[in-house]
């Protein structure tokens, strides 16, 4: 049997908001993927990966998991000694779930009880999200478990609130003029420091108020309109969301993107938002006319992820 591939993920909506109980919408992104493999560890990449798996397995030895989700650490460590590594082209620090895919791959291979994404009930999804949060917290300090869950399920997931998640079907991608796309900021972002900035901001009452009354309202309205394929209300709320982020998430917006972000708002040709925690990595773009937006964003590396 060939080892299953685990795809990257993109959080279309909900960055930072899901910490405060907003909704989130996340989709798998098959351009980037990773899988567990064996080798003689002749390349530096393979050796480094093998070593980090070894460190991770030591961490796993010391955590308690529910019987339903226990991992066979002994087999994992035996395989590491035999040259196991994670062969992945998912960029780290780009907000597309590099550690999530790794955690999903390890769970799939080493959990004593085998699950199939199709057979997991909504209540099990909730439990699994918690388990993945524990498994991924090694990489980020604190994890919601959402990234590994998406990578494991390989399906679009609607984050209803802090506790509940559900599978969701997003409208089929069509060859229209509109597009959702990624822009490469040209630098990596670190999740930890960005989340720290957010929590500092949350200490001020004014920011907490605007987060709840404006950001979460626009964010949830975007998800609702997108899933219903109502593009006019979608773009109206999206602009509000982009303006809000430009004003309140300045430290998280990579400097290389500032001007382009503002230009989109001024011309209404496209709107930008953070992809993940920001600080670097990818930025998400949305436009009704991709050809026009592409011309205006010349010089940036772009990848279309969805057409409408």
From TrEMBL:
Domain of life: Bacteria
Keywords attached to this entry: ATP-binding, Cytoplasm, Kinase, Lipid biosynthesis, Lipid metabolism, Magnesium, Nucleotide-binding, Transferase
InterPro entries documented for this protein: GHMP_kinase_C_dom, GHMP_kinase_C_sf, GHMP_kinase_N_dom, HddA/FKP, Mev_gal_kin, Ribosomal_Su5_D2-typ_SF, Ribsml_uS5_D2-typ_fold_subgr
Domain GHMP kinase C-terminal, chain residue ranges per copy: 253-302
TM regions (residue ranges): none
Protein name, per record: Mevalonate kinase
Gene3D superfamilies per the UniProt record, alphabetical: 3.30.230.10, GHMP kinase, C-terminal domain (3.30.70.890)
């Amino acid at each position: 049997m060939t080892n299953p591939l685990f795809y990257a993920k993109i959080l279309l909506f909900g960055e930072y908001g899901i910490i405060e109980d907003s909704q989130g919408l996340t989709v798998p992104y098959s351009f980037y993927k990773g899988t567990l493999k064996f080798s003689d560890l002749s390349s530096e990449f393979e050796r480094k990966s093998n070593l980090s798996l070894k460190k991770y397995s030591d961490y796993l030895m010391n955590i308690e998991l529910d019987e339903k989700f226990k991992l066979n650490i002994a087999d994992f460590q035996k395989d590491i000694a035999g040259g196991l590594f994670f062969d992945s082209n998912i960029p780290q620090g780009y907000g597309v779930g590099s550690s999530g895919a790794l955690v999903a791959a390890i769970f799939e291979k080493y959990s004593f009880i085998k699950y199939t994404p199709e057979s997991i009930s909504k209540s099990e999804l909730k439990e699994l999200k918690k388990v993945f949060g524990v498994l991924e917290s090694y990489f980020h300090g604190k994890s919601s478990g959402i990234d590994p869950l998406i990578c494991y399920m390989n399906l679009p997931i609607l984050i209803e609130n802090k506790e509940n998640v559900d599978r969701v079907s997003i409208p089929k991608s069509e060859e229209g003029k509109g597009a959702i796309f990624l822009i490469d900021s040209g630098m990596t972002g670190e999740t930890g420091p960005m989340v720290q900035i957010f929590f500092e901001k949350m200490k001020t009452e004014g920011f907490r108020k605007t987060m709840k009354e404006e950001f979460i309202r626009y964010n949830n309205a975007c998800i609702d309109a997108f899933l219903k394929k109502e593009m006019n209300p979608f773009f109206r709320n999206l602009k509000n969301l982009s303006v809000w982020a430009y004003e309140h998430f300045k430290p998280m917006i990579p400097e290389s993107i500032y001007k382009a972000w503002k230009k989109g708002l001024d011309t209404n040709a496209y709107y930008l938002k953070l992809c993940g925690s920001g600080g670097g990595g990818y930025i998400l773009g949305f436009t009704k006319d991709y050809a026009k937006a592409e011309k205006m964003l010349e010089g940036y590396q772009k990848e279309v992820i969805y057409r409408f």
